[in-house]
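Q: Could you predict the 3D structure of DUF2769 domain-containing protein?
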Amino acid sequence: MSKVEFNTKNLEKCICKTCPVQAESSCVKEKNIKVQEMMEENMMPEPEMVPGLYCASGKAACSDLDTAKMCQCNECPLWDEYDLPEGLPMGYYCRDGEAQ
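A: Sure. Here are the predicted structure tokens for DUF2769 domain-containing protein:
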């Protein structure tokens, strides 16, 4: 397993924005708007601004996620690309921290 880099390429592949865990989060919705605006201006947001790519950045800054819902990390293109099933934690990076 290699470390997941926090970069534009991986941010574009990330499927956290469709994850049931953060579907009802108002914090995530606000952050997604700001991130989208920055990306449209070709600016890379700082990890704490991004509600996603948790496998690279670690635990979520938003406290209103619903981790009782099913995580979809195993459906993400980064899951296989970085061999994440071989590392820890195994999913729920938004709750448990970045992939090691």
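Q: Anything worth pointing out?
A: DSSP finds five helices and no strands in the chain.
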